Amino acid sequence: MQKILRNEVPITGPKSAGVKGINLKDDEVISGITYDDNDEYIDLFTNQKTAKRLKIKDLNVLSRAKRGSTLIKKVKSTNYEIINSFVTTTKDIIGIKSKEDIYYIKNSDIPIMDKESTGSVILKTQINDVFKVKELKLINDEDVSEFAKKDKIKYLEEFYSLSYAKLKYYDRYVKYSNETGEDEETTVLFVNLSMDTDDYVDPVNVSSFSINMLVNKHYKVSEDFVPDDLIKMVLWVEVKSSILILIVKKI
């Protein structure tokens, strides 16, 4: 395993063969993983029905094209091979396919171990595939219809791997990303907050009122908006020795 920084991989043209990410001898690349601050672990699953979690923060950052570090120690009596791996959080649900059956386990049930461990047995039968369960989002039919009219789609996976990305904002995501060079997460967040638009120009009308409502240069309430929890107060003003004293009383 080799953990490298994103800037170690240069941006190249579409016809480029790219640069070497890791130096391999008798091993094979199982997966390439990107992660953010929300991810906590890398889950490893082996051909011997075992699995374990590794804390991402405990893995050292290396330079590109190195040998990397061993994640499972070699055992003479048993051949352990990693068949799948992906980043997870404590609350994730893991799906395991065995023959025609699919089993689900909590990610928290997979033990956290060190890099030398071969993992803990999670299933008695052979594991054919492993995946992280994702929750499907309901999408407005009108948004889908408009999206289907587009001739060329780019960056689809990058933007919509984020749970809070909105289909109707696709064009704005692409434009903002191209103009600013921001990453996908920042782009989706800023566009969702309408920070890609000019200040005070066509602000979004806020109709759902709560203590978490957002009102700023891009979001506005109607001119006749009156909070329903206003409290009447009585104010006395008294001046003593050039000091202004304000006394407020709730009525």
Tell me briefly what this model is.
With 251 residues, the chain is of the alpha+beta class. Helices cover 13% and strands 23% of the residues.
Structure characterization notes:
The chain is an alpha+beta fold and 251 residues long. The protein is built from 4 helices and 11 strands. The strands form 4 sheets. Strands 3-1-2-6 form a 4-stranded antiparallel β-sheet, with no helix packed on it. Strands 5-4-7 form a 3-stranded antiparallel β-sheet, with no helix packed on it. α3 crosses α4. The termini are far apart. The mean pLDDT is 82.
**How confident overall, as mean pLDDT?**
82
Q: SSE order in H/E notation?
A: EEEEEEEHHHHEEEE
Shape, principal axes of CA atoms = elongated
Which stretches of 5+ consecutive residues score pLDDT under 50?
none
Strand content: 15-25%
The CA-CA distance between the termini, in Å, is 67 Å
- How would you classify the quaternary structure? single chain
Q: What's the helical proportion of residues?
A: 10-25%
Strand pairing plus helix content: what structural class?
Answer: alpha+beta
Task: Count every helix, treating DSSP H or I runs of 4 or more residues as helices.
Answer: 4
Rg estimate, integer Å:
27 Å
How is the biggest beta sheet arranged?
4 strands, antiparallel
Strand count: 11
Strand order in the largest sheet: 3-1-2-6
